[in-house]
Design a protein that fits this description.
Length: 426
Amino acid sequence: MSRASIAPVRRFCSAIAEASSPKSSSKRRRKPLSPDPYTPPPPPESFPPYEELDCFRFELVHQSSRSAARVGRVHTPHGVIDTPGFVAVATNAALKAVDHRPLGDLLQLIFCNTYHLLLHPGPQVIKEAGGLHSFMQRDRPIITDSGGFQVFSLAHGSVTDELNMKKSRARDESLLLEVSENGATFRSYRDGKRLTLTPESSVDAQKAYGSDIIVPLDELPPYHIDREKLHRSVLLSHRWEARSLRRHLEDRRNQAMYAVVHGGIDEPMRQMSAEYLTSLPFDGYAIGGSLGKDRYELFNLLRFVVPLLPKEKPNHLLGIADVESIQGSVPFGVDTFDSCFPTRLGRHGTLLTKRFGRVQIRQGKWKNVFEPPDWEGGLQGHTLAYLHHLFKAHEPIAATLLTLHNLHFMAEFMESIRAKILNDEI
């Protein structure tokens, strides 16, 4: 484990030692001892039986005869989501460089981040606006996460960061201050304010947002972690998710809640996580945590985990949605995928095309190509030469046009995958 990962633990231990010292102030309160980290989560019988929401259900349209790939429809209060489907990420309740409103059914589901919206404008502002749908003028489904991913990624970064031994700006600033049974305490990257995210406060924020699908708070451990620490982390996530579910069930508000299955690439841990969480009354299941260092580990993980999930409920792969990963994951039965991958590529000058594969529009070879990126779909009205010119001239609209093209590409790509499953070609 990296020094950045253990720094919060050292600070916590130092604080306890200082409080116990005779030299410490008599006014300083000693922090209560944490419970046994191996404490099991609440038993399934302590929860009510599952009751399907009238406004939320999964409909299986077709099961492929060649694989576990399936076509389905997730019915939500704000419309239907065709699966397998791509979920665009609108981090701050906005797609970067693109207005989501004219895109219509192209983006059946978008993903907004609780952590960022918690810091600004705050749940109360969004609640006063009438919820996220009213605030951002969207009449189609929205999914929000718990905020946990962003909080914990501040401590150890991505798997790529770990493998390359990189240090991110956030980790240098030690924004994650403490992890306890209560929740995660961190410092805002915006103004340095100290905040604590608990299972209950995460659910309360998502209730204020009014999103169609919400996610319980979980801990995101780093890729490089020993099995004992991974075991403790999975148990903590289960206790947090159980608390999140209890809070949610107090007032469901026509919102579905997806559990998050953890366990890294350790199959027994994943099985333990899946068995416990599928015994609770969740509406769907997300596959989260560390998903491997490469696609080989990802696909092996999905081959093992997806069959452990109830086939009558939808599932979601968190944070993965590049073309190659989607192609390899669909045969295992994954329903939806979210990622900022295609929009980020567009802003940085990369087009996803059927004709040429990935197009680096800044390259001079496109300067005199007076044809659209693809003959059908996407940016048919603009040529590669024009897009090359806009990008080289640093025109802001270049990011918008390339992002729009990539969103069209992803929608058409997922439509083609559904068609192949319906024909039993996948």
